[in-house]
Write a structure and sequence with these properties.
CATH architecture of the largest domain: Sandwich
CATH class of the largest domain: Mainly Beta
Number of helices: 6
Length: 741
């Protein structure tokens, strides 16, 4: 709430007030809703303009329900009624204003909904003030001695009427200790439009008179207000026109112009042919800008113009204050797009600039696809002081949406991208679209593989596979072909634009870590190579968590990790935590109600080793302790084993640690053990595998090595006792105790 020179102003944030807010004037007689035409009659102006973000009430110091004291102290009381959660809430607003500026002999206000004239009331005699019906809320007297009013329309004098009749037609007459006030809503039948210096002016001319015996008192009340609505010029300015002197005769002394309440001396003012021209730049402080979506982006500007003119006539000062709302037509607003791509970094960078503050990015489409923001696609809001803001889009050449075309003769790839920005104008959220196409030439880039975890394994996808003849994929040392995928149980589909590979969790090529009874981590790696040189260009590694059921892992560093279901073993009252291996001191690392987790070096815990058809096999057993009388009953044991092919062995029996080129083949099987058989005997393998086999592989029969051929290869040197399976430099090997064969 602010006290201005000649008005009291209340401004409310629309985000708080909402669309249904309203004002009420309050005095000792009651509460009065402020709405047209009552507002214009009583000196209230309500400005509800959403682009400004506020609801404004401007109140004349001589408004109907204002408490006035000697034209120097004005007390206001209002209610602001708003809706919160469908309930009306009333806020009481009170303010007292004492304007510091002295009142001129005549003051004219040209508001957007009424005209008001106030004069010093020295000419009015005491009898006239007492007999006249000046209070708008008092009943009319109708006496011949009452004040009368006669309107003039152009040169026509209309029939006089009483003040009470004039009030019924919307006019207001009031008198204070010092001033006489006359107010007329705009567009009244008694007002007229005149042309002054080629400018349309609305004029209301009222003559107030009273006959007191042999004396006639007459007061001339005239208000003339420019009707110009402003003109937008091609120079990018809004021009408002008003007569230099709307009244005949007076000389202009001073002009002040302001926007949205602020005043400044008019440097952009010009006088031509007795016409005052006010040129308003679009970026003037106090102007209001608004965006509009109408297929494309448009904008318009609104200026709440405040004009003050001071005239001097026969030592009598007149102040004219005019308020007008000027609005430009819809103007196209062009968004600026700049291509700032970095060829060496293989990144499209597109800057969308000159985006107005009330416009935001809603969504983004790349070559018709809805953009998903990842490491290869990002958008940032960029501040541009004085120019709104902007957006910076960065898209990798390898993004799936980027179109690629290979020119074999030049060994060059053309990358192109169609970008469609979906923009929204606030607060309406009206949409419009801005499209741009960018292109770059660069060398071909190897495909980017996306990896996604699933319950059963890992899915690898390469979107831009149209130029797959330039690249190859490999798992370890073997090239990924449809035949290799089929042999290992992978699911592979190779389309014209997309390659997809589904790798089941227990298939060959997986590596396992952090194994617990709850879950384990499975890692799979794919190499991207150049087709001609087999140079590794990229490696794509994905690690995913998988739930643990039964599992056996035979690692390359000579360790067996087993998660076994012991629920079928006897005795029934035993718990998995009490189970053990052939070496009864080897107990579970972790156990629950039905399963046990063992992790051991291959040569420990009394493991048995044998050679069979080109493989080295390490076996152990999981079972419970003997019964209390020291003998064993017949019961089941679980046989766990790891098998490694001799193909990967180098310098056999020459080192004290285990190294393998690949993980071993593991299995868990159950075996019925008759009573009385000692735990040192090596049990046979069950004919049915109970649990999964990990690290599965096939070996060509032509390359299998029998035990006899192995002995012949090794010779009979009794000093050669230890096994080393070569790992070709793999890190993380572990020392283990040698096992005599």
């Amino acid at each position: 709430m602010e006290c201005h020179e000649r008005s009291f102003v209340i401004a409310v944030d629309l985000s708080f007030a909402g669309d249904d807010a309203r004002f009420e004037a309050v005095d000792e007689t009651g509460t009065y809703a402020i709405a047209e035409p009552y507002a214009a009659k009583c000196g209230y102006t309500v400005v509800d303009y959403p682009p400004s973000g506020r609801l404004e009430l401007r109140v004349s110091y001589f408004s109907c329900h204002t408490e006035k004291k000697e034209s120097r102290v004005f007390a206001f009381s209002f209610n602001l009624v708003v809706k919160h959660d469908n309930d009306e809430v009333v806020y009481v607003l009170n303010k007292t204003c004492s304007p510091s500026l002295e009142w001129s002999q005549r003051e004219v206000s040209c508001e957007i909904n009424y005209m008001e004239v106030s004069l010093k009331s020295e000419a009015l005699c005491a009898a006239g003030k007492e007999n006249g019906n000046w209070n708008v809320n008092d009943p009319a007297h109708g006496s011949i001695l009452d004040w009368q009013v006669m309107f003039q329309r152009n040169e026509e004098q209309m029939v006089s009427m009483s003040l009470s009749d004039a009030r019924e037609q919307g006019y207001t007459f009031d008198v204070t200790d010092e001033r006489l006030v006359f107010r007329s809503p705009n567009g009244q039948p008694e007002s007229f439009v005149a042309t002054v210096d080629n400018i349309l002016v609305e004029v209301v001319h009222a003559t107030l008179f009273s006959r007191q015996r042999w004396l006639v008192i007459m007061v001339d009340l005239v208000a003339a207000c420019s009707m110009d609505e402003g003109t937008y010029e091609d120079s990018g300015q809004m021009v408002f026109q008003t007569p230099v002197a709307p009244y005949p005769g007076p000389d202009i002394e001073q002009i002040r112009v302001g926007f949205d309440g602020g005043l400044y001396e008019g440097e952009d003012l010009a006088v031509a042919n007795d016409t005052l021209l006010i040129a308003i730049p679009l970026d003037v402080n106090g102007g209001i800008r608004k965006s509009v979506a109408n297929g494309s982006l448009y904008e318009f500007y609104t200026f709440n113009l405040y004009l003050e003119q001071i005239f001097e006539e026969e030592e009598a000062e007149t102040r004219l204050r005019l308020r007008r709302t000027l609005t430009t037509p819809l103007l196209p607003h062009i968004l600026v797009t700049q291509n700032e791509s970095f060829i060496e970094e293989r990144i499209f960078q597109v800057d969308l600039a000159d985006v107005p503050e009330d416009v935001s990015l809603v969504s983004l489409q790349l070559n018709g696809r809805e953009a998903v923001f990842t490491n290869s696609c990002s958008v940032a809001d960029v501040a541009q002081p004085g120019r709104g803001h902007g957006y910076r889009l960065r898209v990798s050449f390898d993004h799936p949406a980027v179109t690629q075309q290979y020119y074999r003769a030049y060994k060059t790839m053309q990358y192109s991208l169609e970008i469609s920005f979906t923009m929204g104008v606030l607060p309406e959220n009206d949409l419009f679209y801005h499209a741009v196409r960018v292109m770059a030439l660069a060398g071909p880039s190897p495909p980017v593989l996306d990896a996604v975890c699933s319950e059963s394994g890992i899915r690898f996808t390469a979107q831009n596979w149209a130029y797959g003849f330039l690249w190859s994929l490999a798992v370890g040392s073997e090239t990924l072909t449809p035949e290799l995928a089929m042999r290992r149980g992978y699911q592979m589909s190779n389309g014209s634009q997309k390659l997809q590979l589904d790798v089941p969790v227990y298939s060959q090529g997986f590596h396992y870590e952090e194994i617990t009874l709850k879950q384990f981590l499975g890692t799979f790696e794919i190499l991207v190579k150049e087709q001609q040189t087999s140079t590794v260009l990229r490696n794509v590694t994905k690690t995913c968590p998988f739930p643990t059921t039964e599992l056996i892992v035979c690692s390359t560093d000579g360790r067996m990790t087993v998660v076994a279901n012991l629920s079928q073993l006897t005795p029934s009252d035993a718990t998995p935590a009490t189970s053990h291996l052939l070496d009864t001191t080897c107990e579970p690392v972790e156990a629950d109600d039905s399963r046990a987790l063992f992790s051991l070096p291959l040569n420990s815990c009394a493991s048995k080793i044998k050679l069979s058809e080109g493989n080295v096999i390490y076996q152990n057993q999981i079972f419970y302790s003997m019964n209390q009388n020291g003998s064993e009953d017949a019961y089941k044991r679980l046989v766990v084993q790891c098998s490694y092919p001799l193909e990967g062995l180098h310098r056999l029996f020459s080192m004290y640690r285990f190294e393998s080129d690949n993980p071993g083949l593991g299995s868990i099987s159950s075996k019925q053990i008759p009573a009385g058989i000692g735990t040192t005997a090596l049990p046979g393998l069950a004919t049915t595998t109970k649990a999964l086999q990990t690290g599965a592989r096939t070996t060509s029969p032509a390359r299998r090595t029998s035990g006899a051929r192995l002995k012949k290869r090794l010779g009979s040197n009794p000093g050669v006792r230890y096994v080393r399976v070569s790992k070709h430099g793999r890190k993380g090997v572990k020392e283990w105790n040698p096992v005599r064969i």
